[in-house]
Specification:
The complex is a heterodimer of chains A (878) and B (183).
Chain A lengths: L2 E4 L2 E4 L6 H8 L22 E7 L18 E3 L4 E2 L10 E3 L3 H16 L15 H9 L18 E2 L4 E3 L9 H10 L4 E4 L6 E4 L12 H5 L5 E3 L12 E6 L8 E7 L2 E7 L12 H5 L14 E4 L2 E4 L2 H12 L6 H4 E5 L5 H14 L5 E2 L11 H7 L14 E6 L3 H4 L1 H8 L7 E6 L11 E4 L5 H14 L8 E2 L1 H7 L4 H8 L3 H13 L2 E6 L1 H9 L1 H14 L8 E4 L6 H6 L11 H7 L2 E5 L3 H4 L8 E6 L4 H4 L3 E4 L8 E4 L4 E5 L12 H11 L9 H11 L8 H4 L18 H6 L10 E2 L3 H4 L5 E2 L15 E6 L13 H6 L5 E3 L1 H6 L7 E6 L5 E8 L8 E5 L13 E6 L2 H6 L1
Parallel strand pairs in A: 1-6, 17-18, 17-25, 19-20, 19-23, 20-21, 22-31, 23-24, 25-26, 26-27, 32-36, 33-35
Antiparallel strand pairs in A: 1-2, 3-4, 3-5, 3-6, 7-8, 8-11, 9-10, 12-13, 13-14, 15-16, 15-27, 28-29, 29-30, 32-37, 33-36, 34-35, 34-37
Chain B lengths: L1 H19 L22 E3 L14 H5 L5 E7 L11 E9 L8 H5 L5 E3 L14 E2 L1 H4 L36 H8 L1
Antiparallel strand pairs in B: 1-4, 2-3, 3-5
């Protein structure tokens, strides 16, 4: 650890630390523009110039030369050095406040301002602009240029539907370009031309089409890249920023909801090093528009004769209570509750409490439609990744195994975090039935045959046992397992259609690694549901590798929605013979649907005798309901979500509820009270207190504890005071900010527990025979239930297409872009007609279609399909 | 007795003097006295010489207002519908005159000189709501012979930037030194 002196303060920092980073803990502020702690240094703006000296060394003794006072003699470097590219070394002395440094900063700022328009009053960055802040603190204070004599360039150039570029304001730091190259891995931006004329351009068509493009707005140190969604709707100092959690996917990115006039004006990332660092995907940034859509349901409604008519809350609740009360005794059989897994823990907890304790029914579920493919919750409960695991910080000694997942489209920010771990020394293994974006960062990547997941995992287990790397100290029946596993690595590899060497290498690397994490995604969960052997094999791989019960070890299930994990924890699953969702949709006589749209997402849905729907919009299900309760959007109430890494996170209330909408938990409580329950929850925090008492894993998870680092940001900042938080965040001045709490798994709380390993023979699936396998993928930006209300998302939704392997395309005589018809067995019979995309991301024998685009809803994963080209004449006739 | 008489005469003398002297009161509202030039009365939103609005919707007046009396909702200009120079204008501009303390900070904060406290002091209303004055009430009429706003104006000429350059420039001021001497 080199010992360096910065402004007279001595500090030990790890080798390889840059001067700007070393200066932070001692409180010396080095201003930067181009440097960002999450990206490689570039040294483009020269703002971080500091005076650097090295101790004079005696060539003979290799010891520092000491003066008469016993102090080392310092050789000052002849010119100022850039703090963002200079690595500290033993004995280095740095001065950050000398007149020479101050003069350099003044000059750099004056230089930058020669071609900066100074239209701060109309600039959306004004108020949280590093250039403004640095000019105030370090700038010259006067100008030698008149506005007329300044350099002028294009203003308000639309770079994409989301981003507006102001060429005049650009200071050419290249942060946006470097973010797209290094972090997002989607090099859609470039710097064209030279000198004053240098400008940011996009190579993409459609322009700047990146799922992470919004982050360039946050990290731009000036107002060159601004959001068109937020454009001219408020000044940043007028916003009230409420801490919240994005509810679009299971990552649970921390965000600030910037509100003004009871409207969300913008969503910006809130730093949480354990969840999203400082990033946010475009979907999370834009999808808030649904919260104030004019299509929201704002009054309770009951079906009078044939139409739904608005009534008061009292009437609606009374209507439902009167309908339920006579059947309370024997309701257990016929009453069912279906809740969406985007709802908060508090709602889901009270919902199941209502059913279990008052209605006496165990018919509860949240897995329908897209969410029906979540599985492996037993694995997570036992072997979930240890408390303290931070996926973004995985480094040397960690092997992360990603199975059947595509985080690029399903958990985008998780993709950002996983794509950098190989750079930090970790081993990343990406295995799926098709090629995914993350594979390009992987140390080992492989494409197995869909349907042979069990063989793939068993091959890893076999390779581990063969190499003698398995541990049996926490396993029951390890020897029997090893004997029962009657497959060789080569056999498994043949079944899974991967190379035996790869399988062996992956198995051995994973087992030999000090720490191991397994992440499995939707496509793998689908396999788990089809064949119990998959889960059994994964169970064996975990137990025999010993990778569980500790930090950086265990499994992470990449669930489909923001609170799928919470729904499982809260008990939103049928227990003791309760009906699962699939049965409920056809058999229930009374169905209570909360925040879900089964009529849209499940073709099997049948109208029950009586249906209560609690939702934001008149969904397909709500239109068939007998009673509709208007619920508050997530921004209109507080609560908690549990993300896919089991991190419970608090989100605050940012808006007044629209119309008569009420929080879901409050509606359930009022209904329960109508039915005679003595519930007296005053707030969502009150419900959470009960959860903390009743659910052992959630012990001590009160709102107060979860609110640490999740506080409202005041709208007014002191002029000339400390930089506002977004500026600090954009500059990477906040270190190690973490909020939320992870619950500990069974293997962590019971260190001595032993687990059974049992061999289950994989079912030889029908896919082994010839036939084309339909792989169902997801597009990030879709026309989903909530995304449809965001205009900018809608302009960027891709057209549906079918991905076909080039060999198949040749065999079937299908050209890239040709329209093809895909037919498969289903009830009712369906056929899709889509343009083909022949780009090699799927292996032969597989076609992939995103199931959340126009006309591609509810596709059956794994169906056997026939692909035929649509005749041109026929296509025209259609 | 003489004492009392003297007091009476003296008193009547004063009355008599005042009867013939010029009165200090005047017949308001028939007669209105001019106010000093720097009087701070009701606000006005000014226009440029070509009729474009000076206000660019930057909300700095609202930020400076100690009484939180100003509300600004900005929007984007387009060449076909141009209100002000540059990219931004105030779509809504409201001042609650019951909250306003007429301190003039808004004037000082304004980067374009758009808002000026003028000489209207007749600020009585029958209800609270009408004390909130809107942009239409605040905005002055366009100069003689000039069009109002919005207007189709692809080229605003000299007024191409939100904060138009001052002809010939201004003497550079060192804001840092200024701040230091004022403290």
């Amino acid at each position: 650890m080199p010992k360096v002196t910065i402004d007279g303060k001595i500090i030990d920092v790890p080798a390889g630390t840059l001067i700007v980073e070393a200066a932070k803990p001692v409180g010396s502020h080095i201003p930067v523009f181009c440097y960002h702690p999450k990206m490689a240094p570039a040294g483009m703006c020269r703002m971080c110039l500091v005076q650097v000296g090295m101790p004079k060394m005696d060539p003979a003794t290799k010891q520092p030369v000491v003066d008469e006072n016993g102090q080392p003699v310092i050789n000052w470097m002849p010119k100022l050095q850039t703090g963002c590219t200079t690595v500290v070394s033993e004995g280095m002395v740095v001065h950050t406040t000398t007149p020479q440094v101050a003069e350099a900063r003044r000059s750099i700022l004056e230089f930058l301002l020669t071609s900066h328009p100074l239209d701060c009053p109309v600039c959306d960055k004004g108020g949280e602009c590093p250039l403004q802040d640095h000019t105030l603190h370090y700038g010259p204070g006067n100008t030698r240029f008149y506005v007329e004599s300044k350099f002028h360039n294009d203003k308000a150039v639309p770079l994409s539907p989301l981003i507006m570029l102001d060429r005049e304001r650009c200071i050419q730091c290249g942060r946006c370009v470097r973010f797209q190259d290094e972090i997002a891995g989607e090099p859609s931006l470039g710097l064209a031309d030279r000198g004053r004329g240098l400008e940011v351009t996009t190579f993409d068509d459609p322009p700047f089409n990146s799922n992470f493009s919004g982050n360039t707005i946050d990290i731009c140190p000036v107002g060159a890249l601004t959001s068109r969604d937020f454009r001219f709707t408020a000044r940043v100092f007028e916003l009230n920023d409420y801490p919240s959690v994005c509810q679009q996917c299971a990552v649970g990115c921390n965000v600030y909801l910037g509100t003004r006039d009871n409207l969300i004006r913008r969503v910006t990332p809130r730093q949480n090093e354990a969840v999203n660092e400082v990033w946010l995907c475009d979907k999370g940034r834009l999808e808030h528009h649904y919260a104030h859509s004019p299509e929201r349901v704002t009054t309770p409604m009951i079906r009078a004769e044939s139409d739904l008519t608005p009534v008061s809350w009292y009437e609606a609740l009374n209507f439902v209570a009167n309908r339920i009360r006579p059947t309370l005794g024997e309701s257990g059989k016929s009453m069912a509750g279906l809740a969406g897994d985007r709802l908060a823990n508090e709602d889901l907890y009270l919902f199941q409490k209502l059913f279990r304790e008052i209605l006496g029914s165990n018919n509860l579920d949240h897995r329908f439609g897209w969410s029906q493919w979540n599985a492996g919750d037993a694995l997570v409960k036992n072997f979930g990744a240890g408390v303290g695991t931070n996926l973004g910080e995985l480094g040397k000694g960690v092997t992360a195994l990603l199975l059947g997942a595509d985080p690029q489209t399903e958990q985008p920010v998780l993709r950002l975090r996983l794509s950098k771990i190989t750079r930090q020394g970790a081993t990343l293994v990406v295995a799926n039935g098709r090629a995914t974006k993350l594979a390009q960062y992987a140390s080992h990547k492989t494409i197995y045959r869909y349907g042979a997941e069990a063989y793939f995992v068993l091959g890893l287990v076999r390779a581990m046992i063969d190499a003698g790397l398995h541990k049996s100290d926490k396993a029951n029946g390890a020897t029997e397992y090893s004997a029962a596993l009657n497959l060789t690595v080569a056999e498994c590899a043949a079944k899974a259609e991967v190379s035996a060497d790869t399988l062996k290498t992956i198995g051995e690397t994973f087992a030999a690694s000090e720490n191991g994490i397994i992440l499995f995604g939707r496509e793998f969960m689908y396999a788990m549901q089809r064949d119990p052997a998959v889960e059994a094999a994964l169970n064996a791989l975990l137990i025999l590798s010993g990778h569980f019960g500790r930090k950086n070890n265990g499994v992470i299930a990449l669930y489909p929605r923001s609170n799928s994990m919470g729904a499982l924890d809260m008990g939103m699953t049928p227990t003791d013979g309760g009906m699962p969702a699939s049965e409920m949709l056809t058999k229930a006589k009374l169905l209570y649907v909360m925040g879900a749209d089964p009529a849209r997402e499940n073709p099997a849905f049948k109208n029950p005798g009586f249906m209560i729907v609690q939702d934001l919009f008149m969904t397909a299900t709500a239109q068939k309901a007998d009673v509709v309760f208007p619920a508050s959007a997530w921004a209109e109430r507080d609560g908690t979500f549990t993300n896919t890494e089991r991190r419970v996170q608090y989100f605050a209330r940012a808006l007044e509820p629209l119309g008569q909408a009420r929080p879901d938990w409050a509606i359930i409580q009022e209904l329960a009270q109508q039915l005679g329950a003595k519930w007296t929850y005053a707030s969502a925090g009150d419900v959470m207190n009960e959860i903390a008492q009743r659910i052992p894993t959630y012990a001590k998870m009160t709102h107060a504890r979860l609110q640490v680092n999740a506080r409202r940001r005041a709208s007014v900042q002191t002029v000339g005071g400390d930089a506002a938080e977004p500026v600090q965040m954009a500059l990477g001045e906040l270190i190690g900010v973490v909020s939320g709490a992870q619950w500990a798994t069974f293997s962590e709380t019971n260190a001595d527990a032993k687990f059974d390993v049992k061999f289950v023979q994989p079912a030889d699936s029908a896919q082994a025979t010839a036939g084309v396998y339909l792989a169902v993928t997801r597009a990030l930006l879709d026309c989903g239930a909530l995304a449809q209300y965001s205009e900018i998302i809608q302009t960027r939704v891709p057209d549906a297409s079918v991905e076909i392997n080039s060999h198949d395309a040749e065999a079937w005589e299908i050209a890239n872009g040709a329209r093809v018809r895909i037919t498969f067995e289903s009830k009712p019979p369906r056929a899709l007609e889509l343009p083909a995309r022949v780009d090699g991301s799927v292996p032969p024998g597989v076609v992939a279609v995103a199931n959340n685009l126009d006309g591609t809803m509810n596709l059956p994963m794994g169906a056997q399909v026939q692909v035929t080209q649509v005749q041109v004449s026929q296509a025209i006739a259609d | 007795m003489f004492e009392g008489l003297r007091a009476l005469v003296e008193g009547l003398l004063t009355t008599g003097k005042e009867m013939v002297s010029k009165p200090v009161t005047y017949q308001y509202p028939e007669i209105k006295k001019p106010v000093p030039p720097r009087f701070r009365g009701r606000h006005e939103l000014k226009r440029h010489a070509n009729g474009l609005e000076k206000c660019i919707g930057c909300s700095l007046c609202a930020a400076a207002c100690p009484a939180d009396a100003i509300y600004v909702l900005p929007a984007a200009n387009s060449d076909q519908e141009r209100y002000s120079p540059g990219e931004r204008y105030a779509a809504r501009y409201e001042i609650n005159l019951l909250r306003c303390i007429f301190c003039g900070f808004c004037e000082e904060a304004c980067p374009t000189g758009a808002i000026v406290l003028e000489h209207d002091y007749e600020l009585a209303y029958y209800d609270r709501r009408s004390a909130i004055i809107t942009k239409t009430q605040l905005l002055v009429a366009p100069p003689q012979g000039e069009q109002g706003t919005p207007r189709d104006m692809p080229d605003p000429g000299n007024l191409y930037a939100a904060i138009p350059p001052i002809k010939g420039g201004v003497e550079p001021v060192n804001i840092v030194e200024m701040a230091q001497t004022q403290v």
